[in-house]
Amino acid sequence: MNRKIIGYLFAVLGFLIWLYVSSHHSAAGHWWSVWTLPEKHNDPHHITIILDPSFYKISPPKVIIGSAVFILLGVFLTLLIPKSRQNA
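^ thats the sequence. predicted structure below, dont judge the formating
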């Protein structure tokens, strides 16, 4: 299999698996999660307990950082896999 295809498949499939797991099977407090809780009040002493997941939003910077990490890993993997030698 072509080494570029392996690198691209790793980057795309790894990113999609990470995005699914981080958006459906994680909480806002996990470091690898893409969920964030938007601030809706100005009082720092206000305590809110939110159990409804509709209040959480997906953080675009976390998604961009995650996609950049997987793109760089795919490029790095593409460079590490040796070229196959074709026998004449």
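The two ends are 18 Å apart (CA to CA).
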